[in-house]
Design brief:
The structure holds two protein chains of two kinds. Chain A is of the alpha+beta class. Chain A has six helices and eight strands; from the N terminus they run ααααααββββββββ. Chain B has two domains: 129 residues, Rna Polymerase Sigma Factor, Chain: A (Orthogonal Bundle); 57 residues, Arc Repressor Mutant, subunit A, CATH 1.10.10.10. In chain B, α2 packs antiparallel against α3. Classes of the chains: A alpha+beta, B mainly alpha.
Chain lengths: 257, 186
C-alpha cells in the first residue's frame, strides 16, 4: 500500500470506521512513518469537530460530585509511578497485534469453512445428478436386454443425409430409446423434436425434444402408445423448446416400423 | 470576556485535583453532549461521563501535546467509552426501539449553557463551528453514522443502501475536508 492509501485509512480510522484489518495495517505503518503519523493525528483532531459541533449540555451537579469523589478512590500512586508507560505501551501494542492476528485467523477459518461447505453442497448436487443418470442408464440397459424389444432404423433425409438413428422399442415397458449418429449440432435457438406417426391419428405426436452434441444424441420416450400401431418415427428441427406440430416437413431423419 | 485556555492535563497527571476539577468544568458539557448524542439516554450518558473522567484522571500521563489538543484527548476517551457502552447495549436489545430518541434528547438536554462551554467553543469550536454544515449532506451523514452510532463501513452501506466503496469514499472526502477546515483555522 502507498502512503496515500494509509492516508485514506487514517481518515476512516479517525472517524471510527476503519475495519480491524485496516486499523492493524495502519498501526504497523505508523510505527515507521512520521508523515502518516502526523496525518493520523490531524484526522483525529478533525474528527473532534463532530463532537464540538454539538451544542454543549451541562451535566447535573451530582455527576460532578461523583467524578471528583472518584479521584480519591483511584490509587494515584499506581497511576503515576507504578508502571513504566513505555512498558505499558509495548504490552498494549503486543496485545492488540495478537488480538488482531487472532481475529484475522478466525475470519480466514470461517471463510475456509464457508468455501468447503459450498464445495460439499456442489458435490452433493453433482452426485445426485450422477445417481439419476445411473438409474436411467440401468433402466435403459434393462429395457434393451428384454425379449420383446424391437429395433427400427431411421435414415437421414435431405437436410442431413449422413444422419441415422437406431430405435429400440420396448412395448412391455411402453418405452422407446433412440440413439442418433452424425446428427448436425442444433443452433442454440433450435431444438430437435422427435415425432411419433400413429395409425389412429392424422397428425404426428410429439415424443420429446433433444439437443445434438458432436453428432450424437439419445432420447428416451416413456408412456409409448401401445394400443395403436406406430407407423413410424421422424425428427424435425424446431424453435427452441419445441412446437405442437411440425412447422415443416423437412424431416432430418425418418423411419417406418 | 477572558477565557482560560491553559492546558490542565500535565497538572492532572501530577495528581492536581484542583486542575482536575477545572478540567471537568471546562469539558464536561462538551463530553456530556457527545455522550447523550451517542447513547441517547441521560442515565447512561452520566455514568459513562464519570467513567471517562476517571480514565482521564488515571491516564493523563499518556497525553502528548505534540500529537493533539487537550479537547481531542478528552473527546477521544469519552467517545471510545460511549461507543463501547452502545455496542454492549446493542447486543442486549434492538436499538431500533430507540427510534426517535435523538430529537427528544436534543430538545430535552440542550439547556443551561455555562461559561466553561464558551471556553471550549473559544478554543476550537468557534473557529470551526459550522464545519459540518459545509460538508455535503451525504458525507456528513456517513461520518455521523460512524462517529456517533459506531457503525462499520458495511453497516453504513447497508443502512443507506449504497455500495461499500461509495461510503468509504464519502467518509474519506468528508474527513479530508474537516482536516482542511481545521488547518485553515490554526
Amino acid at each position: 500500500m502507498t502512503h496515500e492509501d494509509f492516508d485514506s485509512i487514517a481518515a476512516l480510522d479517525a472517524a471510527g470506521a476503519a475495519t480491524a484489518e485496516e486499523s492493524l495495517a495502519l498501526a504497523a505503518h505508523l510505527a515507521g512513518c512520521a508523515d502518516c503519523s502526523r496525518a493520523r493525528d490531524e484526522y483525529a483532531e478533525a474528527a473532534t469537530l463532530l463532537a464540538l459541533d454539538l451544542p454543549p449540555v451541562a451535566p447535573p451537579n451530582d455527576v460532578r460530585d461523583r467524578v471528583i469523589e472518584s479521584t480519591d478512590v483511584v490509587d494515584i500512586a499506581s497511576r503515576r509511578g507504578g508502571m513504566n508507560p513505555w512498558w505499558l505501551a509495548t504490552a498494549a501494542t503486543l496485545f492488540l497485534a495478537l488480538w488482531g492476528w487472532r481475529e484475522i485467523g478466525i475470519r480466514v477459518a470461517r471463510e475456509h469453512m464457508k468455501n468447503q461447505n459450498a464445495e460439499i453442497h456442489q458435490l452433493t448436487e453433482q452426485n445426485t445428478v450422477l445417481m439419476q443418470q445411473k438409474e436411467k442408464l440401468s433402466a435403459e440397459m434393462q429395457a434393451l436386454g428384454s425379449s420383446g424389444t424391437q429395433t427400427i432404423a431411421l435414415q437421414g433425409q435431405q437436410f442431413a443425409p449422413s444422419a441415422s438413428a437406431r430405435v429400440f422399442l420396448v412395448p412391455g415397458h411402453r418405452r422407446a430409446i433412440v440413439f442418433f449418429s452424425n446428427l448436425p449440432d442444433n443452433a442454440k435457438d433450435k431444438s430437435y423434436q422427435l415425432w411419433i406417426i400413429r395409425a389412429d391419428q392424422p397428425k404426428p405426436q410429439s415424443a420429446g425434444i433433444f439437443d445434438a452434441s458432436h453428432g450424437s444424441a439419445t432420447i428416451t420416450v416413456d408412456n409409448l402408445p401401445v394400443a395403436t400401431e406406430i407407423k413410424g418415427l421422424a425428427v424435425t428441427l424446431e424453435p427452441r423448446g419445441g412446437v405442437e406440430q411440425p412447422t415443416n416437413a423437412d424431416y432430418v431423419v425418418m423411419g417406418k416400423t | 470576556m477572558t477565557v482560560e485556555t491553559t492546558t490542565l492535563i500535565p497538572a492532572v497527571a501530577q495528581g492536581d485535583t484542583v486542575a482536575f476539577e477545572e478540567l471537568y468544568d471546562r469539558y464536561s458539557p462538551t463530553l456530556y453532549a457527545l455522550l447523550l448524542r451517542i447513547l441517547g439516554n441521560a442515565e447512561d450518558a452520566q455514568e459513562v461521563l464519570q467513567e471517562a473522567f476517571v480514565k482521564v484522571w488515571t491516564s493523563a500521563g499518556s497525553y502528548d501535546a505534540l500529537r493533539g489538543s487537550e479537547a481531542a484527548f478528552l473527546i477521544s476517551i469519552a467517545r471510545s467509552r460511549g461507543i463501547d457502552r452502545l455496542r454492549s447495549r446493542r447486543i442486549r436489545s434492538d436499538r431500533e426501539n430507540d427510534a426517535g430518541r435523538e430529537m427528544s434528547v436534543q430538545s430535552t438536554f440542550v439547556v443551561n449553557r455555562t461559561g466553561s462551554d464558551d471556553a471550549i467553543q473559544s478554543q476550537q469550536g468557534k473557529a470551526v463551528r459550522g464545519a459540518l454544515a459545509d460538508l455535503p449532506e451525504a458525507q456528513r451523514i456517513a461520518l455521523e453514522l460512524a462517529y456517533f452510532e459506531g457503525l462499520s463501513q458495511s453497516e453504513i452501506a447497508a443502512k443507506l443502501g449504497e455500495p461499500l466503496g461509495t461510503i468509504k469514499t464519502r467518509m474519506q472526502l468528508g474527513m479530508k475536508k474537516l482536516r482542511e477546515r481545521l488547518r485553515a483555522h490554526q
